[in-house]
Amino acid sequence: MARKAKISSKVDYTKIILVCVLLILIGFAVVYIFNITKLSKAMEKYQNGAASYQVVYVYSSQCPHCTQFAPTFDQLSNSQQSDNVQFLKYEYRDADAQKHMKYVDGFPTVLFYSSADSDDAYVFKGKSTGNQPIGALQTNMQQYFTL
Predict the structure, then answer these.
(1) What pLDDT does residue 93 have?
(2) Mean pLDDT of residues grouped by 10 in the chain (147 residues)?
């Protein structure tokens, strides 16, 4: 009579858990190294004087809120002049405004970029009208740019 081989149905969960933990740790290490590399490149640009933050105002000439907000943006750009900060103002139909339109879902829109060559923008969501829009923009600039 032929002898049947027994197949063990025991699974060593300890090894599976260790492998999963190891893979997670490797993933965290890769993300950490990527972020450190990205940070060091940004710091290098800053130390070489090449970094320049951008504040971009996108508006519509047909928009009454934009007309009301324009002096606030002009006041901010005049009061925050710096070698590291560049203030730009575009009517949404301008050719130069097109690269910013993916962040615009209404007018007026103020975008903060961490560098002139950055494609990641922080969109200012504060009130565009009212008593203190300039203060809200300045606070956002200080938090985002660490001026």
Answers:
(1) 92
(2) 60 86 87 70 56 82 87 82 81 89 87 74 60 58 56
Q: How far is CA 4 from CA 7, 8, 32, in A?
A: 9, 12, 52
Q: What does pTM read for this prediction?
A: 0.56
Q: Residue 48: helix, strand or coil by DSSP?
A: coil
User: What's the domain count of the chain?
Assistant: 2
Q: Give the structural domain span for 79.
A: 53-145
* pLDDT in the model for residue 99: 87
C-alpha dist (Å) from residue 75 to 38, 62, 71, 86, 90 = 34, 21, 6, 14, 16
What does the block give as tokens for 44?
């290098």
Angle of CA points 20, 26, 31, to nearest 5°: 130
| Closest alpha carbon to 141 in 124, 129, 125 | 124
